[in-house]
Write a structure and sequence with these properties.
By secondary structure, this protein is an alpha+beta fold. The protein has five helices and ten strands.
């Protein structure tokens, strides 16, 4: 299978590749590492893949390479190589420190079925931060939040709900029937973020939208481990572990 060439990639794919290069450069700087140091710690046979990617001689890193790099950093600092951050819909003050017993969760996306966001939006880093009881998330690592927009997932959550998710550590996680996950799908004109329900079938693992919009009923087939990162356009970002939902008012 031919790897994508930077000259033939879509604008969205080029922007995402550049975002990942920025993440990788920041990762090396934060940990005071050279590409050779990272390659050695990740168990890569050579540094060629990292150097070629950083110098734009290749359009992407392979799935096994990304997963090995992410596994090196238990603090989650390399997770952005997998997770595509998105622009929050609102902003709040972030100058206060969370009190004991409270966990901070960044709301990185608004999930809306059929709505494609520009690739430049995924370069943003100033996300909304919410406080949730630590007991609610049970000290799980790599947490992020997603706000449920419309259309999308009306059969699962009320509009405006905030889903607390645990980022998956690999590009192709194992999924169980009935789980609810946050998924991105890359298109030539942008990236779509959705909430979907997992249905495991003998034909494959399907991701259902559970929306009441008749135009948005298309399920997605979850990516398989044999599919390479550079050719896959569907990514499972995380699994929903808790929710914050609006209550119906007395007038509803």
């Amino acid at each position: 299978m031919t790897k994508p060439n930077p000259d033939t990639m879509s604008a969205t794919a080029r922007a995402d590749a550049e975002r990942r290069r920025t993440v990788l450069r920041q990762l090396l700087k934060r940990h005071n590492m050279r590409p050779a140091d990272l390659a050695r710690r990740a168990g890569l046979p050579t540094t060629n893949a990292i150097y070629n990617f950083l110098n734009k001689h290749s359009a992407s890193l392979s799935q096994p390479t990304i997963e090995k790099i992410v596994a090196v950093f238990s603090d989650g600092s390399a997770d952005a190589l997998i997770i595509r951050p998105v622009t929050p819909s609102t902003t709040i003050l972030r100058n206060r420190q969370a009190p004991p017993g409270i966990a901070e969760v960044s709301v990185i996306a608004e999930a809306r079925q059929g709505v494609r966001q520009p690739a430049t939006a995924f370069m943003q880093t100033d996300h909304v931060t919410i406080w949730v009881p630590a007991a609610l998330v049970q000290n799980r690592p790599r947490l992020f939040g997603v706000r449920v927009g419309r259309p999308g997932a009306e059969g699962l959550y009320p509009e405006g709900s905030v889903l607390i998710c645990m980022a998956v550590p690999t590009l192709h996680p194992s999924l169980k029937d009935g789980q609810r996950v946050v998924v991105t799908e890359t298109h030539d004109n942008g990236i779509e973020v959705t909430v979907r329900r997992v249905q495991v079938h003998e034909s494959g693992t399907w991701l259902w939208p559970d929306t009441d919009d008749p135009r948005q009923q298309r399920p997605l087939l979850a990516p398989k481990p044999t599919e390479t990162a550079e050719n896959g356009d569907i990514t499972v970002l995380g699994k929903v572990i808790a929710t914050l939902q609006p209550e119906l008012s007395l007038d509803d």
